[in-house]
Amino acid sequence: MSTPVRSPNRWLALVVLSLTQLVVVLDGTIVNIALPQAQIELGLSDSERQWVVTAYALAFGALLLLGGRIADYWGRKRTFLVGMVGFGAASVFGGLAQNGTELIAARGLQGLFAAMLAPAALALLTMTFTHGKDRNTAFAVFGTIAGAGAAIGLLLGGALTEFADWRWCLLVNMFFVILGLIGGLLFLSESKADGDNRYDVWGAITVILGLGSLVYGFSLAEGGWGSADTIGFLFGGIVLLAAFVWIESRVAQPLLPLNIVANRVRGGAFLIQAVSGSVMIGATLYLTFHLQIVLGMAPFASGLASLPLTVAIMLVAPIATKLLPLSGPRPMMVGGPLLVAVGLAYLSRITADGDYFVQVLPALVLMGFGMGFVFVPLQNLALSGVAPHDAGAASATANSAMQIGGSIGLSIFTAIYAATAGTTNGLTGTPLLEAFTSGYSATFLAAAVGMVLASVIAAVFIRGTKTELLPQGDAAAMVHVG
Question: How far apart are CA 214 and CA 124, in angstroms?
Answer without folding.
Answer: 32
